[in-house]
Amino acid sequence: MTNRKPPVRRVYVRDGSYYWVQPYTERWKKLCRVEDGEVRMLERLAAEKAKIEKIDGTGNIPHLVDKYVRLHQKDHKEKAWPAYGRYVKRGFADVDIDQMDVPYVRQFLKDNWKDKPHMQRVMRAFLSGFFDWCIDQRLMTTNPCRDVKLKKPKPRTTLISGDHFAAIRECMLTFTYERGGRQLTAKVPTGPMMQCFIDLCYLTAQRSTEIRNLRWTVDPKDPDGCSWVDRAAGVIHFRPSKTEDSSGVTVDFKITPEIEAVLERARGIGRVKGVHVIHTKQGTPYAANTALKAWKVAKKRAGLEDVRYTIKDIRAMALTDAENAGYDIEALKETAAHTNEKQTLDYIKSRNVPTSEIRLHVPLRASA
């Protein structure tokens, strides 16, 4: 190991790489290789500092949240989980843990996510875990989140029509533009893979996260927690990340001829082959925001920019179409990896609007 005088404060060179010694934790965070240059090092340093930015305040909650996140981050696969801690640090910068009560929590959720009931529930769950940890540390005696009641988010009623889905799907492949007074058509480099992505979202009725993380083979480091294609058994083993820490419900989805065709298309795309079915040119899995951007751009090209379709609506479309095809609610519940029928019905009810056949006549006075 080699140590040199740091080019900036708390940055050191070790084994040919720049490392930043994080304040408070004293952990060594690798920034980049020395040969990458100091400009790259400074870029990485700024990015890492932003992740653990110091919140100016008089309370002890920010420090406790940092410690809680550091100790429990490995138990949460959701990439956004550490960001929830930053929201709490900003909201309670001047609050000590022994001051925390129910009104503080209610006001925090109302001020930041007034019209976002789903996010309110996410943050209440994070805070509840944090407060339980504080109780274990003998820093408080009760969890204020236990008395914070929230409205359940209303199920989305948006249903993507077949024609609109097909139009968005086609617009993922090409786009048109004008040059020299002529209308030209060009191919989207990432289009074929993005088509495979939404096709699998529909054909399997799984969450987009599971499709983005779907692997060709089992992950030896996490064999029970990954979703992967099992050709020998003829199924895809889906291990939904959303249920992993709660119900633990999983589903094995049969590889139908339609799914097999999409898998073969994905396998033939690009020169670099990664372990993930849906992968970038570098062989890495797509980030959620990248997939969402591709969806929004294709939606705009299809002339549907003002229609509130999201990638999440593909799952509801698939389950609704499956019900229309004659599959019963039990089969749909198993496919969706739900624990009860009510969860599945939230995706389907109010989407198929019934047509009433009742015919009445307006009463009239009988003639004399």
TrEMBL record:
One of its GO terms (biological process) is DNA integration. PROSITE patterns: TYR_RECOMBINASE (PS51898). Residues 170-360 form the Tyr recombinase domain. Keywords: DNA integration, DNA recombination, DNA-binding. It comes from the Bacteria. SUPFAM superfamilies: DNA breaking-rejoining enzymes. Pfam families: Phage_integrase. One of its GO terms (molecular function) is DNA binding. Belongs to the 'phage' integrase family. This is Integrase/recombinase.
